[in-house]
Design goal:
Blueprint (H helix, E strand, L loop, with lengths): L2 H17 L22 H13 L19 H10 L4 H5 L1 H21 L5 H11 L9 H17 L7 E4 L20 H6 L66 H10 L4 E4 L43 H10 L25 E11 L2 E9 L6 E8 L3 E8 L12 H14 L9 E8 L10 E10 L14 E5 L5 H9 L5 E5 L15 E5 L5 E3 L11 E12 L6 E14 L13 E6 L10 H4 L6 E4 L3 H15 L3 E4 L2 H15 L25 H7 L4 E4 L3 H5 L9 H9 L8 H6 L5 H24 L2 H12 L3 H5 L3 H15 L11 H8 L31 E3 L3 E6 L2 H8 L28 H20 L6 H19 L3 H4 L8 H24 L3 E6 L2 E5 L5 H16 L7 E14 L2 E7 L5 E6 L10 H14 L5 H20 L10 E4 L14 H11 L9 E6 L13 E2 L1 H6 L7 H17 L7 H7 L5 H14 L10 H4 L6 E4 L6 E4 L9 E2 L2 E3 L8 E2 L1 H21 L2 E3 L7 E2 L23 E3 L3 H14 L2 H7 L5 H28 L7 H5 L3
Parallel strand pairs: 5-11, 13-17, 15-16, 17-18
Antiparallel strand pairs: 1-2, 3-4, 3-10, 4-5, 6-8, 6-9, 7-8, 10-12, 13-14, 14-15, 19-23, 20-22, 20-23, 21-22, 23-24, 24-25, 26-27, 27-28, 29-30, 31-32, 32-33, 34-35, 34-36
Catalytic activity: DNA(n) + a 2'-deoxyribonucleoside 5'-triphosphate = DNA(n+1) + diphosphate
Pfam families: DNA_pol_alpha_N (PF12254), DNA_pol_B (PF00136), DNA_pol_B_exo1 (PF03104), zf-DNA_Pol (PF08996)
Keywords: DNA replication, DNA-binding, DNA-directed DNA polymerase, Metal-binding, Nucleotidyltransferase, Nucleus, Transferase, Zinc, Zinc-finger
């Protein structure tokens, strides 16, 4: 029968079965299969083998020599020749080995003759030539694996100390030589792994130091709900009893019988099989005695007893009472953990109508199906159980845009043509094989950035399952031009189709509880056949969700000696049960339970630890190995089943360490860290598989206080370390421990190690307290409900994804086709975007990105100190208001075929767009919520909930503009962003013009606000001016509103985005407000910030300027003195710097302190990555010859090393002086030189910079209108030297000193010397002075005006006046650089010299009493002075500054 006929017969049979309502399985009858093997005993098998050998054609004869079959296998021959040739007996006695080797060689010679005709020689010779035998080398991984394996054997050996060998088949020879201290080579590798392990003697009265430990054996296929080791009421001795050895016993050697590895080695030497049996022995009082495992006989000579060194406890200053006091105040809320054991039956959760109410919180995608995780309520109780729902039947949805005409022939395209080509495409991609796909035409709209897509058109909508391959994006055909929806994820398709907006109650119809068993670790498991069986049940935002179980985690690690990676030594978790999603209570008010799992840092726990843990309120479990610790933690995690894991550094540090240690230690059921059962690790784990790691924990939410979301809620912090967060948010002091030092010193004792674990326990409380205080989980839920994405992604801080999902929901509801998600924007931008907005192309030479478009307008500030009231007028939500005001939307703005930098036109009057409508809805809802908050009857809990909701609405509305200008967003629309910012700039300009037309002075403006100097001293008058201006602005617009944001009593306006002010309120209270100044930057230490704050308060105090300057100078002297005398704690010297990239990727990292500290931390095993904030302190004694990077250390290193001290000179020069100089710049009465003198710094480097800066900052009138004193105040005098007595005088002209002006000429002022300066001598010395200044000008020295830089160079750079920094690479300084001696200074000097010899000027400047004398001398000196003046004029003519090129000025006219 042919294959086609057979297939037809099968189909007919299937048709008959369907007609009879039967299945093939019900009609299946098993058939007896033919036997494949014959069962023979050993004698029968020998007969069969002999009969095969007797066959003539078994092998083909070769040249008549024939082959010989001796019954030996090839590997047996090899073993006889190689392995047995190196037995231990031969190596022990050379003579015996020689004789035995001779007999062996004779036997081998006979055997070799018998095998000359054997076919085996051809294979053996080829094998020997093909591959040489390499010596196996033991790697670190092999040793660790063997140590772990033998460690498990040691654990099982606790109660079985002796080994008895029973003969299995044949008897061993009566006289068998055993060597206890010289084992064979074959066991060497095993014995090396067993060195330094304590073994026991084979004594019948031996009793182990601890009872046998009961091990837990779990099967992946069985629901492992083991929690026996976490019974809070029963403290099992197996987990707390630790054996201790006498240190002195490690030096004793004793003759023992062969250990287990040696026994195995002996078994290999023999030909007989042996069965190892361990008899159970009675317990008695003995001690473990170590054994010498080296092949060296013990030295029985008496040695001097070496006492172990006493452990130095350098951490005695650590006060454990600090965190013990925190735990004491929480003890009254401690409760026992009550886990929900086993699975929950379906009848306990299902409703009477067969439906199910399910609150979903997380999801994962596996095998083309969507898996939801959440909670269901157990009927008849107030408890909730974790639930897993598998959603089947979700179809991929594609939209094919038909062409108008066929691409090749030009014929008109019908929808049937598109259908045919799609059918062919799906068949070619193996999509339509074995799966049903559907298609139908449907109308859709498009309003995004592809110009060749019509606004409205008919599309071919195609549905096929997600388990089939994905159609490549960008695929085109003969009859269709575009395909949309190829990259849509299952989750996105599901929430858009079912209109699910974040975590909410779902109504599930026809749930199926079978066929899904043990797919997850949840208590309830079910599946649905179609997503249409799932719908929202109620309002996602207002419905009360189930209570959550929170677990805050803290781990402690140590650095492994082999791979220098962190290894976990303890895990502490604090569990808060029944915490509401909108919980407003603080952590200290909630009931909690806590557990700690630990293992010894070395071979055993410190002495006294076992007795110290008894009676502890916290459940402390001990394990011997890291693998056991992780297994116990997973068991606790499964029994507790928390919904949310909270931690500091959870995503990058704690979770990453847990995942990699679980894999490294090969822990079974590692996937219990999440709620999804898995068979294997992700393939890309450890190779940049960030999302692969996050998928493992799916089902449990992770709340990290140090990620982007957490940082945005704690903007007062700078480093976001846990210590700083506790201080700023909780107002509690947290002691920072040096982990490495503590393990070696403080935690080396039993009580110290317990206190060390107590520190981690207190951290779990503080982490939970911060999370509840900032309301991060309720806020994340509200944000997710507004956006319609997943709560896990919101908790990770993905703001751009929230904006995408809220727009996806809105446009999908209005039947729009949305842009596909591009996961590699850089590559797709070149092909998809025709506006040239490519990141690689828009990069400046300095590595910074070019502006995609112009942003907000920033007006030039009028710098200075203002002591009158200044109004800050601010537009409320400027960009969202502009979008609403001018109806800016994807659907309204015509932007087709626009040049790249052209701003589109404002849309004409038309229907309100989707984006303005969405923002308007959010704004209106926020107003309603704020109206509810004004109700005096509202409870504190209600006020807290409403505040979270209005905050979520505000964040969402204000971030909607961001998706327009974010390049990696699927809704990126550069023209719309340009139009929005363009209108913002125009609004700010018109507002300034309106203020100036009202006789108001605008001193500064930034994007959405203006500062107006009211020039009044009365607060009411200032408010009246503000209200009048507010009404005038608001009358211009329909939705835009401006309001009085702040009223500044005094304002120090430094530069753009940098100012400090005294904010005045209606009740008369004042608050200092600082923006952009150095004290707000983390790069400055706390001392610098305190000094700047003190000086700023003095400046804004309104006191007499002279008194303020005096107090500032005195304060700076006292601070400098305290720093030099080390009176300030070193922790206040800490500098925080954020890493913009991985520390190993910095090209100039050797000169960067933060990079060097980060690399040192990484070498110790700490997790350091890009965007981390590094804390460091510059050390030294002031006279250092090495750079700051080599003297930078972390605060923990300074705490552990008392010899390290902060460098006061470096801090005064780099951290104190620069911000103080900038703050005092606008104040008269002080300058950089005086400030440097108060700080004890070298003032020489600030003299030239101060002069140049003062000159450039002044307003320069015409020089002809200035007096000689003002014009020449910075010039140097003419220095003349007497040739006779070498006396030096400064000649200032005829008016300066008449004593040296005699009728005979200029006379030397030296005592007893009346020499006259002749005209040639006078000319020569004038020329010498001029040439010295000219030489200084041509040296072209440049100096940086920034006092903290001090750069002085002759290198001219291409950046204009920008300083290149001390390294000459354009980094490290942003100050301007100027010539120390400019052409203007040289020209003024020459002009000054010429005035000294101008007799007519001297006559005009003469006073009344000297006028007659000067007139006589002028006529006397006229001839000689004219000769000198002519020489000076020749030099003046060479100076280019005295010439003006009129051609260059008027050439363009």
């Amino acid at each position: 029968m042919s294959a086609r006929a057979n297939q037809r017969a099968k189909l007919e049979e299937l048709k008959k079965l369907r007609g009879s309502k039967k299945t093939r399985l019900s009609s299946y009858k098993p058939q007896d299969e033919q036997r494949l093997f014959d069962e023979l005993d050993e004698n029968e098998y020998r007969k069969v083998q002999r009969s095969r050998l007797d066959q003539d054609d078994f092998v083909v004869d070769d040249n008549g020599e024939g082959y010989v079959e001796n019954g030996m296998d090839e590997w047996e021959v090899g073993r006889d020749r190689d392995d047995y040739a190196s037995s231990s007996d031969e190596n022990d006695n050379p003579a015996r080995a020689s004789a035995k080797g001779k007999r062996k060689r004779e036997a081998e010679s006979t055997t070799r003759k018998d095998q000359d005709g054997s076919i085996n020689k051809y294979f053996t010779s080829m094998a020997a030539q093909a591959a040489t035998k390499h010596k196996a080398e033991s790697t670190v991984e092999d040793k660790e694996f063997l140590n772990e394996l033998l460690g498990q054997m040691d654990e099982s050996r606790d109660s079985f100390r002796t080994v008895k060998k029973l003969k299995a088949q044949q008897q061993e020879p009566a006289q068998r030589r055993q060597r206890a201290l010289s084992p064979s080579r074959s066991g060497t590798r095993r014995r090396q792994a067993l060195e330094n392990k304590p073994l026991t003697r084979n004594r019948t009265d031996f009793v182990p130091s601890s009872p046998p430990k009961h091990r837990i054996v779990e099967d992946d296929n069985v629901d492992g709900d083991y929690i026996g080791t976490f019974d809070d009421d029963t403290n099992q001795q197996a987990t707390t009893t630790i054996s201790h050895q006498d240190p002195s016993s490690s030096h004793k050697l004793i003759k023992t019988e062969p250990t287990e590895p040696e026994a195995f080695a002996n078994e290999e030497d023999g030909d007989n099989d042996e069965l190892t049996v361990r008899p159970i022995l009675a317990f008695s009082k003995t001690k473990d005695v170590p054994i010498n495992l080296n092949s060296v006989r013990p030295d029985l000579t008496e040695k001097k007893k070496v006492m172990p060194d006493k452990i130095s406890v350098a951490g005695e200053d650590i006060d454990a009472n600090q965190w013990q006091a925190v735990e004491a105040k929480l003890s009254h809320n401690h409760v026992a953990d009550q886990p929900l054991l086993g699975k929950v039956a379906s009848k306990d959760v299902i409703n009477e109508d067969g439906s199910l109410r399910f609150f979903w919180m997380d999801y994962t995608e596996i095998g083309g199906c969507l898996c939801l995780f959440g909670k269901v309520m157990i009927k008849g109780t107030d408890k909730y159980a974790s639930a897993f729902v598998k959603v089947n039947g979700i179809m991929r949805k594609l939209y094919f845009l038909p062409r108008v005409t066929k691409h090749s022939t030009g014929e008109e395209v019908e929808m049937s043509d598109v259908y045919s080509e799609v059918d062919e495409l799906l068949s070619r991609l193996k999509i339509s094989q074995g799966s049903d796909w559907k298609a139908k035409p449907c109308p859709r709209k498009y309003a995004f950035e592809l110009n060749d897509i019509p606004k409205e058109s008919d599309y071919l909508k195609v549905l096929y399952p997600y388990d089939r391959p994905q159609v490549p994006s960008g695929t085109t055909g003969e009859t269709f031009s575009h395909i949309f929806g190829t990259g849509t994820s299952i989750f996105e398709q599901f929430v858009l189709a079912r209109n699910i907006m974040g975590p909410c109650w779902l109504h599930i119809e026809e749930p199926i509880f079978t066929g899904i068993e043990n797919a997850s670790w949840c208590k309830v498991e079910l599946q649905v056949s179609s997503p249409t069986n799932i719908s929202c049940a109620g309002d996602p935002e207002n419905d009360i969700g189930p209570p959550l179980k929170l677990m805050s985690l803290a781990i402690r690690t140590k650095i492994g000696q082999h791979d220098n990676k962190p290894e976990i030594i303890s895990i502490t978790g604090r569990v808060y049960d029944n915490v509401a999603l909108d919980e407003t209570r603080l952590a200290e008010e909630l009931p909690w339970s806590c557990f700690t799992i630990c293992r010894p840092v070395g071979q055993s726990f410190p002495v006294g630890f076992q007795s110290a843990i008894s009676g502890q309120q916290t459940v402390i479990k001990t394990e011997k190995t890291e693998a056991g610790l992780l297994s116990l933690f997973l068991a606790k995690l499964q029994s507790t089943d928390p919904d949310v894991l909270i931690g500091h550094g959870l995503e990058e540090s704690i979770y990453g360490t847990l995942i990699h240690r679980l894999k490294e230690c090969k822990v079974l059921n590692w996937h219990r860290i999440g709620r999804m059962r898995r068979n294997q690790w992700p393939n890309n784990l450890g190779r940049g598989g960030y999302f692969a790691e996050k998928q493992i924990v799916s089902g449990r939410l992770m709340c990290d206080l140090s990620n982007d979301l957490g940082k945005s809620l704690m903007n007062r912090c700078q480093s976001w370390s846990l210590t700083e967060i506790c201080d700023v948010i909780l107002g509690e002091r947290r002691m920072e421990l040096d982990n490495e030092k503590s393990l070696k010193t403080y935690a080396a004792s039993g009580s110290g190690f317990l206190d060390y674990l107590g520190h981690a326990k207190t951290d779990t409380y503080m982490i939970a307290a911060v999370a509840l205080r900032i309301q991060i989980i309720p806020l994340a839920k509200q944000l997710t409900n507004l956006a319609g994405n997943s709560l896990a992604r919101t908790l990770s801080g993905t703001r751009a994804e929230r904006n995408e999902y809220i727009l996806l929901h809105e446009f999908t509801k209005n039947k729009y086709i949305c842009p596909d998600k591009s996961y590699d924007r850089r590559n797709s931008q070149k092909t998809n975007d025709e506006d040239g907005a490519d990141e690689e192309e828009d990069t400046r030479p300095d590595g910074k990105k070019k502006d995609k478009f112009k942003g907000g307008l920033v007006l030039e500030p009028e710098r200075g100190l203002y002591d009158k009231f200044v109004l800050v007028m601010d537009f409320n939500s400027l960009y969202p208001s502009i979008i609403q005001e001018f109806n800016i939307c994807f659907t309204t703005v015509d932007r087709a075929d626009l040049p790249e930098d052209q701003v589109p036109e404002i849309p004409s009057e038309q229907t309100q767009g989707i984006l303005p409508k969405l923002i308007s809805t959010l704004v209106q809802r926020r107003r309603q919520v704020k109206g509810l908050m004004k109700d005096k009857r509202a409870t504190p809990a209600q006020l807290a909930q409403w505040d979270i909701k209005q905050q979520a609405l505000k964040l969402t509305a204000n971030s909607m503009y961001g998706c327009l200008g974010y390049v990696r967003s699927r809704f990126y629309a550069r023209p719309l962003a340009m139009l929005t910012t363009s209108q913002g700039r125009e609004i700010l300009r018109s507002t300034k013009e309106l203020a100036e037309s009202s006789q108001l002075r605008v001193i500064y403006g930034d994007t959405d606000s203006v500062m107006i100097n009211t020039n009044v001293d009365i607060y009411a008058d200032a408010i009246k001016i503000g209200n009048d201006f507010k009404k005038a602005v608001n009358d211009r617009y329909r939705l835009l509103e401006i309001d009085i944001d702040n009223v500044f009593q005094r304002l120090l306006l430094h530069s753009k985005k940098k100012y400090a002010a005294l904010n005045f309120s209606a009740d008369g209270k004042t608050v200092v407000e600082v923006k952009g100044l150095d004290m707000k930057r983390r790069e400055y230490c706390q001392i610098s910030k305190d000094v700047s704050s003190w000086i700023l308060k003095e400046i804004l105090s309104g006191d007499d300027p002279d008194a303020v300057i005096g107090r500032i100078h005195d304060y700076l002297r006292s601070v400098a003195n305290d720093m030099r005398e080390n009176k300030i704690p070193f922790i206040r010297y800490t500098i925080y710097t954020k890493l913009s990239k991985d520390p190993e990727q910095y090209p100039g990292g050797r000169t960067m302190p933060q990079v060097q500290v980060a690399l040192r931390r990484r070498s110790k095993g700490d997790v350091v990555k890009a965007n981390d904030v590094i804390a460091y302190i510059i050390t030294g004694d002031g006279g250092n010859t090495v750079g700051p990077a080599e003297r930078a250390f972390s605060p923990q290193e300074l705490k552990s090393d008392p010899t390290l001290k902060p460098d006061p000179e470096w801090y005064l020069l780099k951290q104190i002086f620069p911000p103080v100089e900038r703050l005092c710049g606008p104040i008269d009465g002080t300058d950089a030189i005086r400030l440097a003198e108060c700080l004890g710094l070298d003032t020489r480097k600030y003299q030239i910079a101060s002069t140049v800066a003062q000159t450039e900052s002044e307003i320069h009138p015409l020089e002809s209108t200035l007096t000689d004193e003002e014009r020449f105040r910075n010039t140097k005098p003419l220095v003349l030297t007497c040739l006779a007595c070498k006396a030096v005088l400064d000649f200032g002209g005829l008016n300066s000193d008449l004593a040296i002006c005699s009728p005979d000429g200029l006379k030397c002022p030296g005592i007893g010397c009346d020499s006259i300066f002749s005209t040639p001598v006078l000319i020569a010395q004038v020329e010498s002075n001029i040439r010295s200044w000219t030489s200084q000008y041509y040296e072209s020295w440049l100096s940086c005006e920034d006092g903290s830089c001090g750069n002085r160079t002759r290198q001219v750079n291409v950046y204009g006046k920008r300083c290149l920094g001390l390294q000459g690479v354009g980094t490290g300084c942003a100050g301007p650089i100027t010539y120390e001696y400019s052409d203007k200074m040289l020209y003024t000097q020459l002009l000054y010299y010429s005035t000294l010899f101008d007799v007519e000027r001297a006559k005009l400047k003469a006073t009344v009493e000297n006028r007659e004398s000067i007139a006589i001398l002028a006529e006397r000196y006229r001839t000689n002075f004219n000769m000198v003046s002519r020489v000076i004029s020749l030099y003046q003519k060479k100076c280019g500054r005295s010439w003006v090129q009129m051609e260059n000025i008027f050439s363009s006219i």
